[in-house]
Amino acid sequence: MLSPHARGTTVETLHSLVGASGLVTTVQTSVGLDDTIGAIVEAAPRLSEDHEVMPNGLVVSRVGMYRIVWGVVSHPNGSLAVLTPLPAYEGQPSDWIRHYMSEVLDPVMALSGGGHRTGGGGNGSVTDPEFARAFGEAYV
């Protein structure tokens, strides 16, 4: 559940993204926004090669045959990120998923070895209950 101060912010947009996506990757850190973004881009550098920051605060990264929509927000103990893959076009062959896994998903999930919490989810829920609790306190 979103707090009232999250309405109309990137927090609400990320919440909607989780609700609308079949697959999301979550990252919870104990560091600030810039350090969290840096850790994600260091793990999956292709996210920074061809990207656009949207007016709603989300980033759209074009990586080969797919796009990643992602964003990072603050919470009282650090930062939270949500990343979701989208095919470049409707009806696209599913081989883009293999590329997504090796170029983004696996490297981002490996951030858990560096002291960050990673998880997944989609279709309106996330797999990490601590991430969900922290998201209720997220702010921009």
Structural description of this entry:
The protein is α+β, with helices and mostly antiparallel strands. The chain has helices at 10-20, 33-43, 96-109, 129-135, and strands spanning 24-29, 51-53, 59-63, 66-75, 78-87, 117-122, 125-126. The chain is built from four helices and seven strands, in the order αβαββββαββα. A hairpin with a 5-residue loop joins strand 2 (51-53) and strand 3. The chain is globular, with a radius of gyration of 14 Å. A seven-stranded antiparallel sheet has the order 2-3-4-5-1-6-7, with helices on both faces.
Order of neighbouring strands in the sheet with most strands: 2-3-4-5-1-6-7
Taking the sheet with the most strands, its summary is: 7 strands, antiparallel
Structural class, from secondary structure content?
alpha+beta
Fraction of residues in helix? 25-40%
Question: Helix count, per DSSP?
Answer: 4
> Can you count the beta strands?
7
* N-C termini distance: 16 Å
Shape: globular
H/E element order: HEHEEEEHEEH
Mean pLDDT equals 91
- The radius of gyration computed from the alpha-carbon positions, rounded to a whole number of angstroms, is 14 Å
**What percent strand?**
25-35%
Parts with pLDDT < 50 across at least 5 consecutive residues: none
Question: What is the compact description of this entry?
Answer:
With 140 residues, the chain is an alpha+beta fold. 31% of the residues lie in helices and 30% in strands. The protein is globular, with a radius of gyration of 14 Å.
